[in-house]
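This section describes the prediction task in plain terms. A model, or a person checking by hand, is given the sequence of a single protein chain and must write out its three-dimensional structure as a string of tokens. No templates, partner chains or ligands are provided. The sample shown here is typical of the held-out split.
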Amino acid sequence: MSDRPGPFDPDQPDDETARRLRDVFSQEARAITPSADGLAAIRDKIRAQRDGRRGWVRAFQIGGAGLATAAVAVIGVISVQHNTGSNGHKAAVAAASSSVPTPTPAAPSVTAVASSPVASVPSTYPVWVYYVDKRKDPQQLLFRETTSWTSSPQHTFVKDAVNAMLATPALDPDYTSYWPAGTTLLSANIVGDTTAVIDLSSEAANGPTGEGAISAQQLLYTIIAAAPKIDGLELRIAGAPVTALWGTPMPTVISPTPSWQVWGHVWITAPAANATVASSVVIKGEATVFEGTVTWQLRSNGGTLKTGSVTADAGAPSRGLWSVTLEGLAPGKYAFRAYETSAKDGSVTFLDDKMFTVD
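The expected answer:
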């Protein structure tokens, strides 16, 4: 049977039942006598029902706003927890804390994130230090080594580099530092983002005569390796500006001598001096030489085992990289020599060499 209403048919059983119900309802309605205040009572009930519905709607709106605020707070905390890496940890937590309304159920979670420990810095890290080659070949030049230095909580790179240079002897016995023993760093500051102001202890005043210029460049290039923006050095000893270092006049601001003039023309950068290596080893280096040509020798027990040449990826005055692969070396001690051959007479110039052991 369809639920759709159709025309009334008293002959149908369902329609007869409906007719009888209508008769009953009509009789009951005629028996009711309305009171004089009935309409007012009905209106009062309707008004009360409307006010009740409005209050429920208002309560729902307030409750919904509270739920939305709590949801924002929870999302903010989840976002902070998701983005707290080793970098910018404190800044991320501070920003999240300021954006979360208080009081909210999520506030304790933000506090917990803020109190979490920051990732610890490594106990040591590599620092480049420049040294002076003892050999005058044909003049004393700078060579670079890597050393490990203890990380400070502030991670002050310039201070660390200068302290490492003053305290760490070179691995290669051909390299040295003329800064007097006992010299310490009193302070290091950066002025205008590009000038390092370095104050050394009074011991720094007593270096060897004639070695002031190269030693000032050693200090400056060690600083530049730690802070590449630096392009000048104001040197002080025990607080007094240095106008002459060990008999050599110094400008107020010391500028770096171009690298092609003050760096060793041929460097061996790997392996380190006296390293232990495998039977197959890659020798790496840098060079500023004519047409990038580096000549090399492999020696052992005072004799020459192999010779050759390699071309760096850039020629003078640019700085080029080069490498030589040695394979099948027997256990023992070796010396690898790399240099520039003089165009004038074919002699060895700008030599660097490294001893190593094949295990």
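For orientation: The chain has a mean pLDDT of 78.
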